[in-house]
Design brief:
With 229 residues, this protein is α+β, with helices and mostly antiparallel strands. Helix content is 38%, strand content 19%. A hairpin with a 4-residue loop joins strand 1 and strand 2 (69-71).
């Protein structure tokens, strides 16, 4: 069972879906009320179907170059943006989170059936739910290392910024995805889709701060995955 700190913040999920989908709580039209009811029903269903889990490992950094991060075992991640950001770090934590396949399976059934709105909403809920879980794991790691007088970077994932998605294979080589029911296909996409792999860097106190979006180092402003929190 996950520690209480590592879980989905369902109130935040509802807030994000409401905001992103422009669902106004002040609109008293029948259509708006129907959408709000569908959101509440979908949220309750998502909570019941969600099976949050995670796995992680810690690796000592060997060297950081202009466009790479090398860690123990002579394994490299390739990203100029991220390697520049984490200079000064001594270790990285590689982690994987998932909420299981229940939500996306239900979304597919509803979308193909007679409830496309609920299918769409539950899929969106699932996307924010796994983001919330990743945030919970990141915060737990930060809290753990803070007690050791260390600072922790914001998280980054293959496919973000200039980091090749193909390096998901390195993740799969370092942590056993199957332990939490996740697989990686030939295109380096994960199944269940509601899964996130990421790294955070560990450094001395004061090197990293918690403020600001991790997307601040990326120049792609119209990315659909861009985070403003």
């Amino acid at each position: 069972m996950l520690a209480k700190l590592i879980d989905v913040d369902w109130a935040w999920v509802k807030e994000e879906v409401t905001k992103r989908e422009r669902i106004s709580p002040y609109d008293n039209s029948e259509r708006a009320k129907s959408i709000a009811r569908s959101l509440d029903d979908s949220l309750a269903k998502a909570k019941a179907l969600s099976k949050p889990d995670y796995i992680k490992t810690v690796k000592k950094i060997s060297s950081i170059g202009g466009d790479f991060i090398e860690f123990e075992g002579s394994i490299r991640f390739s990203s100029g943006k991220i390697s520049g950001y984490i200079k000064g770090a001594s270790h990285i934590v590689i982690f994987l989170v998932t909420i299981g396949e229940g939500i996306e399976n239900e979304a597919s059934i509803l979308t193909k059936g007679k409830e496309p709105l609920e299918g769409y909403l539950i899929d969106r809920i699932g996307s924010y739910a796994v983001e919330s879980l990743a945030e919970s794991v990141e915060n737990k790691i930060r809290a753990d290392y803070s007690r050791r007088q260390k600072s922790v970077s914001r998280r980054y994932s293959p496919g973000y910024c200039d980091w090749p998605i193909e390096e998901q294979r390195i993740f799969a080589g370092e942590i056993d995805f199957s332990k939490i029911g996740v697989t990686l296909n030939e295109s380096c996409m994960m199944a269940p889709k509601k899964s996130i792999s990421a790294i955070v860097a560990i450094a001395d106190k004061g090197v990293f701060t918690e403020t600001g979006s991790p997307c601040g180092i990326c120049e792609i402003k119209d990315c659909s995955y861009r985070r403003d929190y």
